Amino acid sequence: MIRQLSIIQTVFSILLMALMLNIQTASAQNTTPSLKETFKDDFFIGTAINAQQIQEKDSVVDNIIKQQFNAVTPENCMKAEIIEPSWNNFNFDLTDKLVAFASNNNIKVNAHNLIWHSQLPAFMYHMQSADSVKQYFEHHITTVASRYDGKVYSWDVVNEALNEDGTLRNSIFLQKLGDNYIVDAFRLAQKASPHSKLYYNDYNIEQPAKRAGAIALIKKIQTAGVRIDGVGIQGHWRYDNVPMLDIEKSIKEFSALGIEVMFTELDLGVLKNPWDNNTADVSATSKADSTMNPYKNGLPDSVAQKQAKAYADLFALFLKYKNVVSRITFWGVNDGESWLNGWPIPGRTNYPLLFDRNFQPKPAFYSVIATKQ
Ligand code: G3I
């Protein structure tokens, strides 16, 4: 009997401790400033959202998303291989949930994406004829874009179509459809989704040659009389290598075309990549290497402070151009779930975002908030 009582007591104290911890986390969240509130007069603040988060599996991250962000971009569930895994067989479940979640919480969805050379369904890799590719291209865009017309705020109509030198990437779409395929994608999206905005999205388009390619592309779409509402600069940079001057030039040059400018996949990683550049090409991978993983036991405060300064400099720039910069989206909520832990080298410990692995705001979070004070 005494033994049973002591077990009950132990279980009770564990439950009490868990409850206290939950209350503490909740109250910490209530006192944490909100990014979306702080920048509500300036631009939307977004995050990439993964399958677990769309399904609201974890209340801690769920609360953070609702408290901090007024825009979301699906990290994966709208990519072609997931939303149309086999020909004319669409899997809309997760995207329907995402749209409902966003609508219930007054959050805008940027749908990512309609046309991308990567993450294509397997059947696309066996396609030989231009006719089949054309059929897929028209049917995919029309089906997906019309289903979510007006339910999503915007589309990344075409993603990552450019090479670093500004020429068009030699994708299956360029090979089979010719160099007008991007204009055609926007034309189809405009027809299927007249009530959502249409964007071009890419990495490194702040760099001069690639930027010139993007500007030429946008002008081509405009000259064809087709709607394009904005351009997304992804923003996968390293904290000690943020190209501030090129970013500022890009904001000026892109906005001079009469379109919105957005930073759509922002993260400032702290680890070097083997090529020492800022690429975000998902196919550029390298082998596991423990010498390239210096912070596996924690981020030194000196690095966290430098990262905080880099984020603050960026947000000060975004605020300077708030009339043309319409959204800043982080590529993930916390450091633990960032794609940069697995790319380009698998199994590393990176720290690119504003919240740490325990969902606590980092120095970078507070430095971003402080740009408004
Ligand atoms: O869903 C499968 C799962 O079933 C399987 O067990 C697991 C095993 O590896 O893989 C899962 O799929 C992974 C998927 O992420 C979901 O976690 C893919 O392998 C993996 O390649 C995929 O990576 C995504 C990558 O794009 C490629 O689509 C990253 O999460 C995502 O952050 C990244 O996002 C891209 C943007 O869309 C475009 N710009 C660059 C950015 C970063 O690469």
Explained architecture:
The chain is α/β, with parallel strands linked by helices. The chain has a domain at 76-233: Glycosidases (TIM Barrel), CATH 3.20.20.80. Helix content is 42%, strand content 14%. It contains 13 helices and 9 strands. It has helices at 2-31, 35-38, 51-54, 59-68, 80-83, 93-104, 130-147, 172-177, 181-192, 208-223, 244-255, 301-320, 363-370; strands at 44-49, 71-74, 108-116, 154-159, 197-202, 230-233, 236-238, 260-269, 325-330. An 8-stranded parallel β-barrel has the order 1-2-3-4-5-6-8-9, surrounded by 5 helices. Strand 3, helix 7 (130-147) and strand 4 (154-159) form a beta-alpha-beta unit. Helix 7 (130-147) packs parallel to helix 9. The radius of gyration is 22 Å and the shape is globular. Mean pLDDT is 92; it is low at 14-27. The structure holds ligand G3I. Ligand G3I is lined by residues 75-76, 79, 119, 234, 265, 280, 282, 339.
List the SSEs and their pairings.
Blueprint (H helix, E strand, L loop, with lengths): L1 H30 L3 H4 L5 E6 L1 H4 L4 H10 L2 E4 L5 H4 L9 H12 L3 E9 L13 H18 L6 E6 L12 H6 L3 H12 L4 E6 L5 H16 L6 E4 L2 E3 L5 H12 L4 E10 L31 H20 L4 E6 L32 H8 L3
Parallel strand pairs: 1-2, 1-9, 2-3, 3-4, 4-5, 5-6, 6-8, 7-8, 8-9
Helix pairs in contact: 7-9, 12-13
Bound molecules: ligand G3I.
The site of ligand G3I has 9 residues, from loops.
Largest sheet: 8 strands, parallel, barrel
Q: Treating each run of at least 4 consecutive H or I residues as one helix, how many helices?
A: 13
Instruction: Average the pLDDT over all residues and give the rounded result.
Output: 92
Distance between the termini: 61 Å
By CATH, the architecture of the domain at 76-233 is named Alpha-Beta Barrel
User: Quick one: CATH class of the domain at 76-233?
Assistant: Alpha Beta
What's the SSE pattern? HHEHHEHHEHEHHEHEEHEHEH
The CATH homologous superfamily of the domain at 76-233 is called Glycosidases
Low-confidence region ranges: 14-27
Strand content: 5-15%
What is the radius of gyration computed over CA atoms, rounded to a whole number of angstroms?
Answer: 22 Å
Class from secondary-structure proportions: alpha/beta
Shape type = globular
Report the strand count: 9
Strand order of the largest sheet: 1-2-3-4-5-6-8-9
CATH topology of the domain at 76-233: TIM Barrel
